[in-house]
Amino acid sequence: MEELVEEVLVRIPPDDPASLVRAALVCKRWCRLISGASFRRRFRELHPTPPMLGFLYDRYSGVDFVPASSFRPPHAFREDWRMLDARHGRVLVMNVGSFSLMDTEFIVWDPVTDGLQKLPILEFRRSSWSAALLCATAGCDHLDCRGGPFLVVVVVTDVSGQRRTSAYTYSSEQGAWSEPITVQHHNDCILRLHRALVGNALYFNYELNTEILEYDLGRRELSIINLPSKFHGWHIVLMEAEDGRLGFATIQESKISVWSRESGPDGVSVIFMWTDDGLFTIDLKSNQFKRIGEFISNFGVVPYTSFCTPALSVASMGDEEPRADASSA
């Protein structure tokens, strides 16, 4: 009978974690089943693509989490934060409350557990820059890595003289920032919220769309990819395409066009679009779109994708009922 119950519960849609919590509160047996490591692992294997639980955007006084599922974080609004990136169950933000233009404090936040990790101060001029967060475990399938090691990469363009972009890397295992590496490029500036992770490389977009910055994480090398002239000046969004290639999306004559470049592993393909009727998500795999709000953020929005299965306390003795604790993915 327990095997049959598991077969039913493991098929609960991953974007409805509230149903898993309600099922776990039915009785101790179901609670032990759902909160167990074996169930969580099988749940992720059956649903290999983490759902979009919500998205984050900058408000005037901080960062706001807007749910797109039944998941609700313990703290949906964070004051004095600026949104930067979200990947592999964690979120990268910048603390703007008490630091100068040269001193920057980054924070890695887990919306599910509400855990925070503050990084050492990094000194750089915040005029043309971007940052990315990613899992640091080699060969990870990212089904259950939110508690593992991570990397934060910050790329900065020097706009004071000859154009060059430098990259700094923070390793949670080493607890320190690396020395910068540098590449020369044309007269252009990095865009803060335009980046993509494809395979073992990060890609960042420049403002004029004449080139793309590539950071090879394995070799720790920077290089420049020149874009064809027909793309210069377009508004493009870098992404990992459905077939795992580096690509980008843009709008041409009221149509969404998707371009790709080189092969790689699997990817996701949900983009955001503002229209006169509000903010929409567009799934490029299923061609489905969904209206999710009316607000507009000048800094864009960042999707938060993650599994969220409940962690519940069960008394080992007596008749105490299971109780919900902080959720974990």
From TrEMBL:
InterPro entries, sorted: AT5G49610-like_b-prop, F-box-like_dom_sf, F-box_dom
Which positions fall inside the F-box domain?
7-42
Its protein name is F-box domain-containing protein
Give a single Pfam family match.
Beta-prop_AT5G49610-like
Describe the location of the F-box protein AT5G49610-like beta-propeller domain by residue ranges: 83-263
